[in-house]
Write the structure tokens for this entry.
Amino acid sequence: MKILNFGSCNIDYVYSLDHIVAVGETETSDKLEIFPGGKGLNQSIAAARAGAEVYHAGCVGEDGGLLTDVLLRSGVDLTYLKKIDGKSGHAIIQLSHKGANSIFLYPGANEKMTKEYIDEVLSHFEKGDILCLQNEINLVEYLVDKAYGKGMRIILNPSPFNEKLDKVDYGKLSFVILNEVEGRAIAGGGNDPAEILANIKAKYPRLEIVLTLGAKGCVYTDGDREIYHAAFDAPVIDTTAAGDTFTGYFMAELARGKDYPEILKIASAASALAISKKGAAPSIPLLSDVLKAADTLPLCE
């Protein structure tokens, strides 16, 4: 079973601030740091650091050396990555001194994929292989349709959630990994996690769902069973890559054939370690550290 992550690569410009800037407000940043990032890149690195063999596909621009270097150093296979003219995607991240963040994106090369390129990449994968997708690239709906036709197991992290996802047939997905805001949008409403999950299952009964709840943990359901795991208690320094770390470790453990209680435990421990360091890709932990944390970190009450 191979893992293909068709996703974004961004250069992250992180501005440290006392607090997230409000509308009409001007605030002076006390630090600027530049990191490799993007949901796709982060998730590929997380899966690779979890010990999985992962192929990353997508587009980077002429300025993408920072991005390809960190992917290669992390053990990600770049056979199918495409370099194009122009700029890579980038993100402007406000990071408060309390660890909260606010992000806006310039897609750049991430939205330059073609159907011909997608077809060529998918020709190297087969039934049962895992395809991971986010919503920072173009043609997500085309990728879903083509991968479904090949019998691949499709994981969608519908972030950022916007109207582009209206084109996606959720009935063709194997898994969604989402937070409460994204879950509520797909469900068409819901006042609490139980209601969100019930509403999504009513619309897409075959879909397996992982709902992340921040400090309240996470829950998996396939309709027949529901598995909950509490969050691990760790200091909050920077939450930027926490969700991506969770997703990357989830697909790595899934590819290893682990059962869901263990998958949720390992992915939750990895996410907890990620929030205790600054940056996106640099904060993603190694498997050895995650396994230790899963046995030693306390759970949130």
Remarks:
- The longest strand covers residues 10-17.
